[in-house]
Every structure is written in C-alpha cells, then in structure tokens.
Amino acid sequence: MFPFCFEWAWDMGHIVFMGGLWYALSIIGAGLTFAIIKSIFDSTGGGHDNHDHGHH
Amino acid sequence: MKETPLIPAGVKRCSKWQFSIWMAAVTAVLLWGVYAMFLIWYKGLNQTNMNDAYGFALWIWADLAVIALGGGAFFSGFLTYIIGKNELKNIINYAVIIGFICYSSALLILAIDIGQPLRGWFIFWHANVHSMLTEVAFCLSCYFAVLTIEFIPLILENPKLDKKPFLHHLSHNMHGIMAIFAATGVFLSFFHQGSLGGVAGVLFGRPFAYREHIFIWPFTFFLFTWSAAAFGPCFTILVTKVTELITRKKLVKDSVYQLLAKISGWMILTYIIAKTIDTLYWAFVTAPSKGFTLMDFYASSTYNIGILFAEIVLCGFVPGLILITKRGRENSFLLMTAVILAVIGVSLNRWVMVLQVMAVPLFSFNDWYAYMPSWQEVATTVLPVAYGLIVISLAHRYLPVFPQEKELNPID
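^ Those are the sequences you sent over. The predicted structure of the assembly is below.
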C-alpha cells in the first residue's frame, strides 16, 4: 500500500493499482475537507446564510 | 424552550408502540444472524458447509447479488448529478440508502467470509496487484465511503440535528459538491462491478464460466457493470413500492417511477441482447472447443436448461420489453411484475455465475458437486436483510427521505 511496505515495487502494477486507489481517496478526502472547512467558516459567521433549503 | 421533534414536520408516522413492535421483531432476526456471525468468528469456517469444490458459496452469491442490486445508487446518482435528470432527485435519497445498506452488507459478509477478520486489512496493506479481487476490495471500500458521504447530509436533515448551525451548513455544503462524489462513485462502481464479472471469465479450469478473446475483455466486465446499472434501479423501484404498501402512502410521483423504469427497461434490453450473444458464442464455439456440449452444463435436476431460460428470457427479455413500452410501465401490475422479474433475474445470474460454476463436474468421471448451506451460513445471509429493514425503518421515520411526501400526503 505504501512504498515503505517490504513487498512494494516501483512497477506498473503497483503504480496503476495504488495510483487509482490514492486518486479516489484524494478526491473523497479533498471533497470532505472542503465541506467541513466551509461549514466551520459558515457557522462561525464568516459566510452568508442566505441559501434555501431546497437541496435534495 | 420547546423541544424540536425528531420526526420531520408535515409528515405522519405510525405510533411509537407500533414502531417498537416492528423493530423488536426485526431485531430478533438480526440477533439470530449476529449469533451465527460470532459463532463463525469464534469457531472458524468449519461452521459452514463450504468444501474443496465450493470455495465460493452462499455468501459470495449474496455478496454479488447485493452489489448488483445496490447498483441503483450509482446509476441513479449518475443520471441525477451527471446527466441532469432532475426528476430523479425525488428518489435519489432512497436509492442512496438502499445502496448504503447493500454495500455495507457486502462488506459485512466479506468480513465473515475471510475467516480471520482481524487480518482483513492485509488486502490493503499487502495488496496483490495482480488480482482482480484486490481491485474489487479497493473499489468496494472506497465506494462504501462515497455512499456514507452521500447518506450523511440526509441524516443531518433530521429536525433536531438541523438545529445545530455547523451540521446545518455541513449538510448544505455536502449537497453542493455531491456531483463530485457521485462521479467518483460511478468511477469506482464501473471498476468493481466489471472486475467481479472478469473474475468468472478467467477461470480457465471452470469451462462453464470461462470465456475467450473479446468475450473476456470487454464482455465479462461490461456485462456485470451493465447488468448492475440496468437491474439496480428496478430494486430501488421495488423497495420504494413495498415501502408505500407498508406505510399505506404514496411517497413518489408516478412520473418519477416511469422515468426510472423506462431507462432501466432500455438498459435491461441492451444488456440481455449482449448476454445472449455471449451465451451463444460460449455454447457453440468456446465450450465445444474444450470438449463440452451445451447440455453437459445443464444435465442436473437442479441446474437444468430451465435455469438458462429463466435467466435470459423470463427474467431478462420479459421485464425489459415490459419496461420499454409506455403501456407496460403505466400498468401498475405489469410494472411490479417487471421489476420483480428483473430483481430475480440479476440475482439468478449471480447465482449461476457463483454456484453453478462450482457445481458443474470438471471431468467425465465426476458427478455434480452438491452443496447445502449450513444454518450459520443462512443466518448470516439473512442478517443483512434484517439490518437493511432496520436502517430503512429508522430512515423513513426520522429523515426527510422523500421530497414529494408532504405534497402527496397533506395533513389536515
């Protein structure tokens, strides 16, 4: 999973497999981090609370 | 200060005691499954009836079936957030909940099936990058994370939680970037559904499953992905209709069902045509080249040619043709018949791809391999059903799952 694991090799299999995994995890993590930070900012008065509730 | 109620405003729910009796009954079934699960974890896989012939058994069928049925979540998300079918926003919440239940169930079953769950993390840490099942494990786990993220904003819309400013904003902000998560979910689903199909196609020691040339790539991959996208929405429709029946309320407008059913119908029809081509090439070219005839694979009293007819025609072409016609979709009996047949069809396909593959004799001196699941296997397969009923009951009672419910069921 990581280059410091004993069985790691810099071959195409590891780069494609692990690259795909870390790519997906990065998008999920970045999206979640953005939502949390923006919510902290919004709830402490930094943002505008003028959105409607029509989100579904 | 007046207490905020837990139940969303403007909707009617059954009384507390009715709900408690229902939950107690389902929890009893759940506890039976949990007991069997701990028995397996404590005593080991000797609690099952799996053997050398059946390395894949009831659990793997259940796994593949719930993953296919849960495909309604990624495909509905794709249609709603990527293609822009806004009408489906009225059912997407429920599709996500059903997907969440299906995928968490799949992971639970895998945690039981691996025998030593404490070593479950090895599949990530010491990944075998040459295995399609490693990719399935990666995508399954990541997609479950995506489904959890898609479910969280709905939980945060509970009236009590929504009162907290941070949670209110978090729900709104997560909704705002839901298209990114939906797109990630489609990407992940495409790969793990495809690889599950691919696994069967490369079993060169199992001539019932083995395919050659383009019938491995892209056929085995696309058949599984396509079937999950085609049949998954039918499961969403079926569960929503059953929920309406139990709650005695209309929860979603007919136009929403019609749209989802129409798309699903065309997907089923195109899938089943591709599946027929695959089956014909396998039956008349691949299998004979390995010394088998078609009927060698259907010579058992359990697995006779009727199972092929049921999978392709009765539970494939029939629901597909019903759902693509306006008259078929608008007739509630035909619509229900089609979605039930479709759900049976995809479950039957996964059964055939897991259990019939194992049952077929490999040599002329072999008999058909027999397998009957132990009660522990049955209980742990029923466990996710009870768990799903509990999640659905709680979600329907306490969360604003159906945006059209208030409009369709006005309270005087």
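Chain B has a mean pLDDT of 94. Chain B has one domain: 16-407.

Shout if you want it in another format.
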